[in-house]
Design goal:
It contains 13 helices and 10 strands. By secondary structure, the protein is an alpha/beta fold. The chain has 2 domains: about 1-85 and about 265-280, Rossmann fold (3-Layer(aba) Sandwich), CATH 3.40.50.2000; about 90-260, 3-Layer(aba) Sandwich (Rossmann fold), CATH 3.40.50.2000. The chain has a 6-stranded parallel β-sheet, with helices on both faces. α1 (about 1-15) crosses α2, α6 packs across α11 (about 235-245) and α9 (about 185-195) crosses α12. The protein is elongated and about 65 Å long.
Length: about 280
């Protein structure tokens, strides 16, 4: 049924080119387009391509990737490295210095929050207590665990921390932070790079093909992040890593600059240019 619907949609609109971005829905649409003689392309956001894009890469005319290794993992030597499209406000974000000598730490686990991050950070507060006069914390928990995480902060040395279910706009929070603790999804990696922030990345262990860890390792190799896998993660290790980074202002600056070196401000243009090259003109 999916392919039949895709065939009708493509036939009705007769696009000049069709771009797939992964996921099960893209397969039927790109196949229908190819069978109707319409040029096709895919864009892969992660360092390890998903099943749909690995399959589609065998017949699409062009491949764009956010991470260089993704092209070889799809056996496409002609893959064009574009990066991931990130909103311009992330590239334009300005630093808002914390008052005095205080450092800012941001923890966020995506729109739903992260139980693993919430639990680890709640436990890490005890080990970070000696930094209470030098550290401002913002922690985004998601709605489900808000109350229990807030309680952990209230009974810690960081009772003044801002603990919230959501952060919007997230760009302002990243820009205000010295160090960010987060997962390692493709868009999070892109946003951290665009702003240029040092990060402690804790990849989601259940991500398909372990793609979050592979994303994170790219940033770590460049010098922009420290990676702690879920199997390595303990409250004490997280606290120690935070302390080590924040105690060295030069290291924070180096990591931020290294992250920024991975930014792709021209990603959207590069993808559009690639599509222009292959589009049907008749």
């Amino acid at each position: 049924m999916g392919f039949a619907q895709a065939w009708v949609v493509v036939g009705r609109h007769r696009p000049n080119v069709v771009l797939g971005v992964g996921g099960y829905a893209s397969g039927p649409v790109l196949l229908a387009a190819r069978m109707q003689g319409i040029p096709t392309a895919i864009h892969e956001q992660n360092a390890f391509p998903g099943l749909a894009n690995r399959t589609l890469a065998k017949f699409v005319k062009a491949v764009a990737v956010a991470f260089p290794d993704a092209g070889s993992r799809m056996k496409r030597a002609d893959a064009v490295v574009t990066g991931n499209p990130i909103r311009k406000e992330f590239f334009e974000a300005s630093r808002h210095p914390a008052p005095g000598t205080r450092h800012r730490l941001l923890i966020f686990g995506g729109s739903q929050g992260s139980h693993v991050l919430n639990e680890a950070m709640s436990g890490a507060l005890l080990f970070l207590a000696r930094l209470k006069d030098r550290l401002t914390i913002v922690h985004q928990t998601g709605a489900k665990e808000l109350d229990q995480v807030r309680q952990a902060y209230r009974t810690s040395a960081f009772a003044d921390a801002r603990v919230v279910p959501y952060l919007d706009p997230i760009v302002d929070e990243i820009a205000a932070a010295d160090v960010v603790v987060s997962r390692a999804g493709a868009m999070t990696i892109g946003e951290l790079a665009a702003v240029g922030r040092a990060a402690i990345l804790i990849p989601f262990a259940a991500a398909t093909n372990n793609h979050q860890e592979l994303n994170a390792r790219v940033v770590e190799k460049a010098g922009g992040a420290v990676v702690i896998t879920e199997s390595q993660l303990t409250p004490e290790k997280l606290a120690m890593t935070i302390s080590e980074i924040l105690s060295d202002a030069a290291r924070v600056a180096r990591m931020g600059a290294a992250a920024r070196s991975l930014a792709a401000p021209e990603a959207t243009k590069k993808i559009v240019d690639l599509l222009d090259k292959i589009e049907r003109t008749e």
